[in-house]
């Protein structure tokens, strides 16, 4: 019962991430640049730019969601189980729809794989950065 807000925020995270990619695809100048490039093929290095763009978008949205959960829902547990439950909402459809697409034959597909892996591990990694840990170093 204590982890229901984590699941609900995971659902909100899933929808915010989808809307973020919708608006990034619609208004991002990177998509216009890729469309205007006449020499673009599946092994063009421009796909690395798109992969970094998408990975940064995931990291920004993930950090926003974890900050919301940590500070606005402070009475609920902020532990690894809550974060994994939040991530589970994104993990399940991502694995179901993209597991067959993991091929390493072009830069475009490798860039997509990096974005998928980023979306699969973003929340637990940001949690490990954000959590409070006791400092063993003291200054006298």
How would you sum up this structure, described in words?
With 140 residues, the chain is mainly α. It contains 5 helices and no strands. α1 packs antiparallel against α3 (46-72), α1 (4-27) packs across α4 and α3 (46-72) packs parallel to α5 (107-130).
Keywords:
140 residues; mainly alpha; 5 helices; elongated
Question: Can you describe this structure in just a few lines?
Answer:
The protein has 140 residues and is mostly helical. The protein has helices spanning 4-27, 29-36, 46-72, 80-98, 107-130.
Helix content: over 70%
Major sheet attributes: none
Count every helix, treating DSSP H or I runs of 4 or more residues as helices: 5
Number of strands: 0
List unreliable stretches of 5+ residues. Answer: none
- Structural class from helices and strands? mainly alpha
Q: What's the end-to-end separation, in Å?
A: 44 Å
Rough shape? elongated
SSE sequence, one letter per element:
HHHHH
Q: What's the pLDDT, averaged over the residues?
A: 85
- Using the CA coordinates, give the radius of gyration: 18 Å
Give the DSSP E fraction (strand runs of 2 or more residues): under 5%
Helices and strands, with pairings:
Elements: H1 4-27, H2 29-36, H3 46-72, H4 80-98, H5 107-130
Helix pairs in contact: 1-3, 1-4, 3-5, 4-5
């Amino acid at each position: 019962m204590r982890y229901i807000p984590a699941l609900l925020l995971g659902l909100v995270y899933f929808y915010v991430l989808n809307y973020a990619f919708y608006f990034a695809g619609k208004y991002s100048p990177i998509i216009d640049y890729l469309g205007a490039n006449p020499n673009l093929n599946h092994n063009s290095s421009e796909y690395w730019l798109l992969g970094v763009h998408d990975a940064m978008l995931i990291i920004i949205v993930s950090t926003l969601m974890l900050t919301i959960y940590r500070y606005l829902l402070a009475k609920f547990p902020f532990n690894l189980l809550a974060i994994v439950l939040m991530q589970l909402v994104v993990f399940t459809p991502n694995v179901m729809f993209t597991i067959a697409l993991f091929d390493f034959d072009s830069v475009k597909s490798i860039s997509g794989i990096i974005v998928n892996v980023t979306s699969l591990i973003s929340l637990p990694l940001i949690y490990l950065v954000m959590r409070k840990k006791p400092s063993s170093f003291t200054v006298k």
